[in-house]
Predict the structure of Glycosyltransferase involved in cell wall biosynthesis.
Amino acid sequence: MRVAFVLGTTSGGTGRHVLMIVEGLVRRGHQVLVIGPGSVEEQFSFGGAGARFVEVPVSDRPHPVNDLRAVLAVRRLTRGADVVHAHGLRAGALAALGRRGPVVTLHNALTAGGFVGLVYGALERIVARRAGYVLTVSPDLGERMWRLGARDVRAAVVAAPVPRPAKRTPQEVRDELKAGNRPILLTVARLAQQKGLETLLDIAAGPWRAGGDTTATAAGEGAGGPAGVPGGGGDGPVGAARGGVHGTGGEPLFVVAGEGPLRGELQRRIDAEGLPVVLLGNRDDVPDLLGAAVALLMPSRWEGQPLTLREALMTGTPAIASEVGGIPEILGDAGILVPYGEAGRFREAVRELLETPGTAERLAAAAERRGREMPDSEDVVADVLGVYRA
């Protein structure tokens, strides 16, 4: 089978998902072509996986002249393909205009408004009406495509790579972060609008300290944290969870791994308010960080099937997350769901995890169980081959 992929600019889960499919197809002897911006080849090396790569610029924003060129290029390059599979709304619309009935996987929901929202709404209608099959990463995306008139909508199977084993102990990570006895809540995200990081800062700014909430601070103060971050110590049930090295109570330390355009804005607020939040930047030791965290914190505006959540569950780390997109389906009973943007409800969930006897242990056990149930790369490739043959 000759399969052509069309990609736009991507730096995260979409690219890793496509690379997983490309590798699986090549192993099975299929001919694979990948079309997209040069930046995706630099980051993911589809050529190194055995595919042929052809650079075609697909910009983040609509551009009539460049988009027409991209449509014509897709039409020319995919003329001999048995299947064209586009990933993302922009790439999907261009592929649908350049080739009849492509498969389109939608990885993200529109969270912007105004003119950008209108343009992307038009692209959604193009995909719904011209794609042969639409695969979606969350139920709400699927429902939207049906409403817009799509002919065949199916749930996409997404898998996270098996996390590498941690190279450091949780205590070594805690020492690096100067966490003392405080529980660590980890967020792994691009510092961008979709990830709801302003809500994370609202959570951290809540009444954790003495005088603000006697329940949250009953363990007392005293353990040191990173420079500029107040400490908290004491005893509590969370200290017995996940090896007894995840903090014993007091004010949590919020640790964020990732980089992005909002870093300056976030750091200014952290500094101005003295928030117990540390921005680590991009990290290549996420399994180590997960091992030291009592939970993954995901305050996102929207998520499809976030690989970070899957990776957390595969390491036995529960999550406190926004009840949006595909998160509830992935998380199941391995965490606590909270309505998006409700910082007070997030704080209540954190307190339940840290202070209610047995909660941390129960959720960690559920996370390990959910992690074992996650689909793998073979499931992903088998799923798309079923669509292609249809």
